[in-house]
Specification:
Layout lengths: L2 E7 L4 H13 L3 E7 L4 E6 L3 H9 L5 E3 L4 H4 L3
Antiparallel strand pairs: 1-3, 1-4, 2-3
GO molecular function, one term: metal ion binding
InterPro entries: HMA_dom, HMA_dom_sf
Pfam families: HMA
Length: 77
């Protein structure tokens, strides 16, 4: 089942955007994604589990949480 996952990702530069795009491009089930440097927002569409997307993007070393969630609760270093 296709769904949309929206994450808040701390990306201070274009290099960070590239790292996020690289890991999402390799992820199974991802149909499309958009990385917004200005908004620090990553939107992923596809047959994916939200937690799996969060874990995958967290592997870049960027602080990652679900968009609109309490940072203290879901933030991954």
């Amino acid at each position: 089942m296709s769904q949309t996952v929206v994450l808040k990702v701390a990306m201070p530069c274009e290099g960070c955007v590239g790292a996020v795009k690289r890991v999402l491009g390799k992820m199974q089930g991802v149909e499309s994604f958009d990385v917004d440097l200005k908004e620090q927002k990553v939107t992923v569409k596809g047959n994916v589990e939200p937690e799996a997307v969060l874990q995958t993007v967290s592997k870049t070393g960027k602080k990652t949480s679900f968009w609109g969630a309490d940072d203290a609760e879901t933030a991954k270093p």
